[in-house]
Amino acid sequence: MTYLVTGGSGFIGSHLIEKLLKEGHSVINIDNFDDFYDYKVKIKNTLESLGKKSEFEFSQKENDILHLISISKSENHTLYFQDIRDKNGLEKIFTDHKIDQIIHLAALAGVRPSIERPLEYEEVNVRGTMNLWELCKQFGIKKFICASSSSVYGNNEKTPFSETDNVDKPISPYAATKKSGEILGHVYHGLYGIDMFQLRFFTVYGPRQRPDLAIHKFTKLISEDKEIPFYGDGTTARDYTYIDDIIDGIVKSSQYLEKNSGVYEIINLGESQVINLNEMLSTLETLLGKSAIRKNLPMQPGDVTKTNADITKAKNLVGYNPVTNFQNGTKKFVEWFLRK
Ligand SMILES: NC(=O)c1ccc[n+]([C@@H]2O[C@H](COP(=O)([O-])OP(=O)(O)OC[C@H]3O[C@@H](n4cnc5c(N)ncnc54)[C@H](O)[C@@H]3O)[C@@H](O)[C@H]2O)c1
Q1: Domain ranges of the chain
Q2: Annotated catalytic, 174?
Q3: In the prediction, which pLDDT does 302 show?
Q4: How far is the centre of ligand 1, averaged over its atoms, from the C-alpha of 315 (Å)?
Q5: Where's the NAD(P)-binding domain (predicted)?
Q6: Which end of the chain is more exposed for a tag (fewer CB within 10 A), N or C?
Q7: Mind listing the pLDDT tens digit for each residue in 253-292?
Q8: Is the Cα dihedral 271, 168, 84, 40 positive or negative?
Q9: Distance from the CA of 147 to the center of ligand 1, in angstroms?
Q10: What's residue 313's pLDDT?
Q11: List of the chain residues with pLDDT < 50
Q12: Backbone phi and psi for residue 81, each to the nearest 5 degrees, phi listed first
């Protein structure tokens, strides 16, 4: 099968491409290497996902990306340096390839920066996503997986969070763009018969995790003996999900889409093991053999107090089965971090 993966040079996307290629599929990756975090990290992600080792002499962003495009091209992999906000640019790619399924991961992903740059979040996460659906309509593509987020639950009081809970009260622009994606996706499903999954990921971690996310940020600062910004009293909690389990959930959803039609489903992909910030930090301290230097700060606006996934629907519908607990997952993350 030929997959179009957007955001394929990011954290989750690079793991997904690695998996799809191993399974013998062809992959088209669309990524604009945006500056939310260092583009060099995304170049490394792509090389790792393709199993390539390259002595990369980083020079200038545009040159580096063009070089990456040339060395990463193969019979079953094509990388496009392309912004999803540019519909004409996307249209050329859709014209040149016969796409069986789209897995849309490209987004501006941080919660806190979305408060600073809400309009840009709307442009990428909402308009960019609509551009893809418009092209699905034009080119008759009927299978679509979209990355949503646990953040749509806001400060939901009922736990665990279930897909039937009301999600009308997001607390950050980022969360609101993800909720908009779910709603607009339903419109395109209804009007144009696009079979669709909206996958609500719960804090994903593991090798290549985004450098802005807490596990990665804390690991780096502890290992460098630097102060860590510690927001709140440590009782905020997250349902952390290991990257391999998320990839398993995406692949199983993709297989379900291939076998079924008339599909529009929202599912939680979490681990259902909730860890608070204090526990997370002490796990990292133990793994690194070092104590953290905490700088206590008040809770940040936009941050939810807790996430906790009910994954019954994902288990029953697609056979999602997360197997990596937090201890094992963080061990693998820290080993990767120390090796790189
Ligand atoms: N990592 C998590 O814990 C988590 C949790 C919930 C939801 N998600 C969602 O999963 C998806 C992937 O997240 P990630 O953690 O891998 O993030 P990431 O930032 O590592 O990956 C996103 C990729 O999208 C690309 N991108 C951004 N704007 C683009 C644009 N305008 N055009 C083309 N490409 C663009 C980036 O360059 C990046 O490579 C996102 O949609 C995110 O919102 C992630």
Answers
A1: 2-205+241-271+309-323
A2: yes
A3: 79
A4: 24
A5: 4-332
A6: C
A7: 999 999 999 999 999 999 988 999 999 999 999 999 999 9
A8: negative
A9: 8
A10: 98
A11: none
A12: -85, 90
